[in-house]
UniProtKB/TrEMBL annotation:
Keywords: Carbohydrate metabolism, Glycosidase, Hydrolase, Polysaccharide degradation, Signal, Xylan degradation
Keyword NAD belongs to the record: no
Protein name in the entry: Glycoside hydrolase
Signal peptide: 1-20
Amino acid sequence: MKNKILITLFACLLPLLAGAQQAVSQQNNVAEKDYIAYLFTYFTGNHISEEAVCYAVSTDGYTYWALNDNKPVIDSKIISSTGGVRDPHILRCEDGKTFYMVVTDMVSDNGWDSNRAMVLLKSTDLVNWTSSIVNMQKRYAGQEKLKRVWAPQTIFDPEAGKYMIYWSMQYNGGADVIYYAYANRDFTDLEGEPKPLFIPENKKSCIDGDIVFKDGIFHLFYKTEGHGNGIKVATTRSLTSGQWEEQPDYKQQTTEAVEGAGTFKLIGQDKYILMYDVYMKGKYQFTETTDLKNFKVIDSEVKMNFHPRHGTIIPITRAELKRITDKWPSKEMGNMTIPNNPVLQGFHADPEILYSHQTKKYYIYSTTDGQSGWGGWYFTVFSSDNLKDWKDEGVMLDLKSDQVIWADGNAWAPCIEEKIVDGKYKYFFYFSGNPTAGGGKQIGVAVADSPTGPFKDLGHPILTESPVGHGQQIDVDVFTDPVSGKSYLYWGNGYMAGAELNEDMLSIKENTLTVLTPKGGSLKDYAFREAAYVFYRNGLYYFMWSVDDTGSPNYHVAYGTSKSPLGPIKVAKKPVVLIQDPAKEIYGPAHNAVLQIPGTDEWYIVYHRINKNFIDREKGPGVHREVCIDRMEFNPDGTIRKVVPTL
């Protein structure tokens, strides 16, 4: 009786354990918001020259380009005992930066019952791999009747806290059975004896297992070898329990023979892709599902410039995409190899950009996004020397630490100014925060000797009240007039205000405070909402601002000009500078900064847009934003040409 109670209790705890492990995994792993592309690992055919690992990439999960001219990226002769490998399965580890790959050590020309081994590979950059061969007959005693070892895959088992490798084996006179063993810590060998993972109720052969974890349940996709040649699914809450619930129907959406199921989740969506090798026809089929039970064919949406065999797909980050495409370029992919936008990894909004004359580098500061209620509490800074490759320099101001004593959250919309004070560079960082003492948002300033900090907060806010009696004290901008050398601060939500800063850059001259809100307009054109930004060109002061709500696809940028840093502002005849392009799935591009390349008349607009996968209102579009950069050009009369946002 005690054992039954313990078993019942353990079964009840399993979902909690899995949930806890998933939370830990999400903490340690790369967040889904940081993925921008997909890596497809596959082999190409049944000749030794084609039995090798190849790479392809996609930026949307539907269109794939082969890298390295569809040639291998890993030499099978070096890593295998047979000279060929098949069925590559790739996995990102729980630490987010290590990758495991397992492959069948096999050359088909030697016969389908010729192989006895698998290869375990490990990498931290997707380019350089270490490898180990695990030969079952040599590794374990009593394996004389072993005929074949096929299609290994790897999954993290949260109950064991280890990586499980599972594969199918067949012995003389028996069925193909999916076995498992745990990998050792170095991922170079197996621990313990192989044990059966899954044996279908009919006791017939099954191969090509592919396990997907969703909603606390492990879904095993497998091929019924020799008695239907289709793909079925069995589910369990515990990988090693032996308790599997089999679904009766076949999941492939074709009457042709298939194998090599591979399942992956689309980035930022609730959709999964089940793909499989239609091996007798030399093609792949893609199907789409939201519940891992019902599938629809989407072949018309899928494009490839190669013909893969049995492979797997994982999401990758911008840095990883760049690394592998730099190593193995794709001629056909061309300039689309690395998407220009977004330029920062992850969710960020309200960008400010600085060119530092001290370091000769560019820096982006932003609101850390992706948190409900705009609940970010710290600021990070990214650096670049070419405006394309951005390095995360880490947290440069934390409102919940002792760095800032007057505010503890809602770290929003910063700006920064580089000044020379007493012969040394100083950096004045203005930001809004939620005051610990209560009340509406307020604006503070922190100072540093470097663009990346450490920054020291003044100790109290410098702007606490609205000059018009409503709206929020947020979205601050700082501007130094090249004509007078004076510096100005601008801010406001629901109103635009501006004032001259005192020489110490730590307070405003109260008698210069001016309400600058552009008059008139509507949400379709130029009604002021927030995010003032000021720059100077050819005798004119340009004022830019954002229109509509930050969570709206219609959120966009308008502008006007003035002959003074404190107005009045004359709204442009064609005021819209930047607006959504639904055909390109570009939504809500606004809250901008502007960059002039030093010594040139080359200008760029830096802004955020809503990530296309979070445009639905229930998905929080206002907190799932990403930073982009596009060229901004002027007409001969000084008016701003409408910016064409790019992907």
